[in-house]
Design a protein that fits this description.
The complex is a heterodimer of chains A (about 450) and B (about 150).
Chain A (H helix, E strand, L loop, with lengths): L2 E9 L6 E8 L2 E9 L6 H5 L7 H6 L6 H15 L6 H32 L4 H7 L1 H22 L8 E2 L2 E2 L5 H26 L13 E4 L10 E4 L10 H4 E6 L2 E8 L2 E2 L5 H8 L5 H9 L12 H21 L16 E9 L2 E9 L5 E7 L1 H17 L7 H14 L12 E4 L18
Antiparallel strand pairs in A: 1-2, 1-14, 2-3, 4-5, 6-7, 8-9, 9-10, 11-12, 12-13
Chain B lengths: L10 E5 L9 H9 L8 E5 L3 H8 L5 E7 L8 E4 L17 H10 L7 E7 L11 H19 L2
Parallel strand pairs in B: 1-2, 1-3, 3-5
Antiparallel strand pairs in B: 4-5
Helix pairs in contact in B: 1-4, 2-3
Classes of the chains: A alpha+beta (about 450), B alpha/beta (about 150).
C-alpha cells in the first residue's frame, strides 16, 4: 500500500488565503480539500446597527476587484426593502459601472493570470517579455474598464459615487464621451481576444455541471434578474434563502453553499453563458459562435473564451448605453427607510452575488446576509480537481501541481490567481522514499 | 498610448493604503508634498496596482516612487535608491503584484521611466485601522522635504 499527501500551501496573490490538500492512497484520491483559512471577517455582524444607507460603501470593501458587485447587490436589496426600484437612465448608469468592473476584472484574469497557463509561463510578468503586444492589449483593456469605473463611480477601486437610489453625481455627457473613445478600441481588442484565446490548447475535459445564474427578460443578466438553474429550477431573489443554504465545513472559513440541498453547483461565466448566451449583444454572440463555444460550454479550461466573449459584450453594451445617454434630471431617487426585508442579486465577474438585509423601525440594519460566488463555487472546484487529477496521478509532481493550480484558476475564484506562486509538498510515502520538499512561500 | 503632453514631466507616485497603519505613510508624504509640488511635476496616489503604476510612469523623464517597506531596519528608516532593483514587496496582497513586479513588467514592456528614484519608509505597524506611528510620520516629513527640494533644484 502506498500513500502520499500533496499539499499546496499558501495560495498567494489571492483574495483570501487558501491552500490545496490532496491525499492519495493506492493510486486513488482519498481526500481533497480546497482550504480557505483566511480569518472570517464578520462583515454581516459589523453591518448590524449601521444606517440602512451604509452597506453599499461598507460591503464594497469586501473585495478590491469587484466592489461594484457588492455595491449593486447591496443597493438593490435595500431599495427592495424600502419599496424603491431604480429604472431608466439611473439603471443604465449602474449597468455602465458594472460593465467597467467586468472589463477590468476579466482583462486582469485573462491576460495576466490565466493566459500564462496556456502559453507556458510561470507568471504574467514572465510572459510579458515574450508576448509584449499581448500584455499591452490586456493592460489597455483593463485601463479602459478602470476609466469607465472612474467616470461613473468617481474612482476605479472602491467607487465612491454610489448611493441608494442612484449616484451622488451623474457623469456628464462629455465625461462619458471621453471614455467611449477608449472603449471603441477596447471593443476591437476584445473581439480579437475572443479568437486569440479560442486558439489556445485546452485540456480535453467536460464536466456535468449544474449551473446557476441570473436571467433577465431582455439582457444578458448582470445587474438584476431571477436566479435560474440548468435543471429548470427558477425562483425570485426573495426566495433565495429557501433554495441556497450555506453551511460550515471544518477545513474552510468560507461557507459552502448548497442549492436545494445539493452541493457543488457552479456560478460564473460558464453558467451565465449556458443559461443566457442568446441575450449576448449580436457582436458578442457572433464572436462566440465563431470561437466554437456552442450553446453550452462544459470545459472549465475554456472559461477564458467565455470571459473574452463577456468582455466584448460589456464593451459593446457600454458603448450602446453611452451613445444613448442623456444626463438624468436628478442623480438619484429618494429612498426612505421602512421596517422590511430586502433581497438583491447581481452577477459579479466570478458569479452570482446575493445580499439580504432586514431594516428596523429606526432605519438601522437589523440583519445582513451575504452569499458571495466563491462560497458557492468552492465545493464545485474541489469536484473539478478530483475529476481532473484522479486519472492523472502518475504525472510528474510539477505537472500535477500546475494542472491543479490551473484548474483552480479556471473559475477565477478570489483565491485563483495566486497559483503561480504556490509551493507543493509531497510527503514521504509508506515505502520510505522521500520526495522533494519545499517550504511554503512567505510573501510576494 | 503613453505619449501625452504630461509625459515630459516628472511624476511622484505614492503607494499605500491609509487603512493599514504605516502602509499609508507614502500617502502622508503625498499630503505633505502636494502644496509644495513644483508646477512642472505631477503627483499620483495609488494603491499599488502595477498597471496603474506603469501607466503613471510611462514616458516620464523621472518617476519618484514612495512606498512603505518592511525589513530589519528600525521603524522610520528611509531607504533611498536610484537604481531599478526595487526590493520585493513584503506584503501578500489581493490579486495584486508589488512594485518589484511593476518594474519587471515595465521593463518587459519597455515602459519604464528614464530614471527612477525610490524612497522606502520602514513601517512599524501595519495593523488595519491603526494610525501612522510617530517614526513613520517623522520619516514622511523628511521624505516629502527631500522630494520637494530635489524637484525644485534646477
Amino acid at each position: 500500500m502506498t500513500h502520499k499527501t500533496i499539499k499546496v500551501d499558501g495560495l498567494s496573490r489571492v483574495e483570501g488565503e487558501g491552500a490545496l490538500l490532496v491525499r492519495v492512497r493506492d493510486g486513488r484520491i482519498t481526500d481533497l480539500k480546497l482550504r480557505i483559512y483566511e480569518p472570517p471577517r464578520f462583515f454581516e455582524g459589523l453591518l448590524r446597527g449601521r444606517a440602512f444607507t451604509e452597506p453599499p460603501d461598507l460591503t464594497a470593501r469586501i473585495c478590491g476587484i469587484c466592489p461594484v458587485a457588492y455595491q449593486m447587490s447591496a443597493c438593490q436589496a435595500l431599495e427592495s426593502a424600502c419599496g424603491v426600484e431604480v429604472t431608466g437612465p439611473l439603471r443604465d448608469l449602474r449597468l455602465l459601472l458594472y460593465f467597467g468592473e467586468w472589463i477590468e476584472s476579466h482583462a486582469l484574469h485573462m491576460f495576466l493570470l490565466h493566459a500564462p497557463d496556456f502559453l507556458g509561463y510561470p507568471s504574467g510578468v514572465a510572459m510579458a517579455a515574450d508576448h509584449r503586444e499581448l500584455v499591452e492589449r490586456g493592460l489597455f483593456l483593463k485601463k479602459a474598464g478602470n476609466d469607465l469605473l472612474a467616470a461613473v463611480g468617481g474612482r476605479a477601486i472602491h467607487p465612491i459615487n454610489v448611493r441608494l437610489g442612484g449616484f451622488h453625481r451623474a457623469p456628464t455627457r462629455r465625461e462619458l464621451d471621453e471614455v467611449a473613445e477608449k472603449l471603441r478600441r477596447a471593443r476591437d481588442i476584445a473581439l480579437d481576444t475572443v479568437s486569440l484565446v479560442a486558439g489556445f490548447d485546452f485540456p480535453d475535459v467536460e464536466y456535468d455541471y449544474r449551473f446557476l445564474a441570473l436571467r433577465h427578460p431582455s439582457e444578458y443578466a448582470i445587474l438584476s434578474g431571477s436566479p435560474v438553474a440548468s435543471d429548470g429550477l427558477t425562483f425570485e431573489p426573495a426566495q433565495w434563502p429557501e433554495h441556497v443554504v450555506e453551511e460550515q465545513v471544518p477545513h474552510s472559513t468560507a461557507l459552502h453553499a448548497t442549492l436545494d440541498g445539493e452541493p457543488a453547483y457552479l456560478v460564473g461565466p460558464l453558467a451565465r453563458y449556458a443559461l443566457n448566451a442568446g441575450k449576448l449583444s449580436p457582436l458578442a454572440r457572433e464572436a462566440a459562435r465563431a470561437a466554437g463555444l456552442g450553446d453550452v460550454c462544459r470545459n472549465p479550461f475554456r472559461s477564458i473564451v467565455v470571459r473574452a466573449v463577456e468582455t466584448l459584450h460589456a464593451c459593446d453594451e457600454a458603448l450602446r448605453i453611452i451613445d444613448g445617454y442623456a444626463e438624468p434630471d436628478a442623480p438619484f431617487v429618494p429612498v426612505e427607510p421602512r421596517p422590511a426585508v430586502g433581497h438583491g442579486v447581481s452577477e459579479a465577474p466570478r458569479g452570482t452575488l446575493y445580499h439580504r438585509y432586514r431594516v428596523d423601525e429606526q432605519g438601522l440594519i437589523a440583519e445582513a446576509d451575504i452569499v458571495p460566488p466563491t462560497a458557492q463555487n468552492q465545493a464545485r472546484i474541489e469536484r473539478d480537481l478530483r475529476e481532473l487529477l484522479s486519472p492523472r496521478l502518475d504525472l510528474p509532481r510539477e505537472e500535477l501541481t500546475h494542472l491543479a493550480e490551473w484548474a483552480i484558476r479556471n473559475h477565477d475564484p478570489c483565491i485563483s490567481c495566486s497559483a503561480h506562486f504556490l509551493d507543493l509538498r509531497v510527503e514521504p510515502d509508506d515505502d520510505g522514499r522521500t520526495a522533494p520538499t519545499t517550504a511554503p512561500t512567505t510573501a510576494s | 498610448m503613453s505619449a501625452t503632453a504630461a509625459a515630459a514631466r516628472p511624476v511622484v507616485i505614492c503607494l499605500g493604503n491609509d487603512l493599514r497603519g504605516d502602509d499609508g505613510v507614502a500617502l502622508e508624504v503625498a499630503r505633505l508634498l502636494r502644496p509644495r509640488l513644483p508646477p512642472h511635476a505631477d503627483l499620483v496616489e495609488s494603491d499599488g496596482d502595477p498597471t496603474a503604476v506603469i501607466e503613471a510612469w510611462t514616458g516620464r523623464p523621472l518617476a519618484v516612487v514612495v512606498d512603505a517597506v518592511v525589513s530589519a531596519a528600525a521603524p522610520g528608516t528611509v531607504h533611498h535608491r536610484t537604481d531599478l532593483n526595487v526590493p520585493a514587496s513584503p506584503r501578500r496582497s489581493s490579486h495584486s503584484l508589488g512594485l518589484a513586479e511593476a518594474v519587471a513588467l515595465g521593463r518587459a514592456l519597455n515602459r519604464l521611466p528614464a530614471a527612477l528614484s525610490f524612497y522606502g519608509i520602514e513601517a512599524a505597524d501595519l495593523t488595519p485601522g491603526a494610525p501612522l506611528t510617530p517614526p513613520a510620520r517623522a520619516a514622511a516629513a523628511q521624505v516629502a522635504d527631500a522630494i520637494a527640494r530635489a524637484l525644485a533644484a534646477p
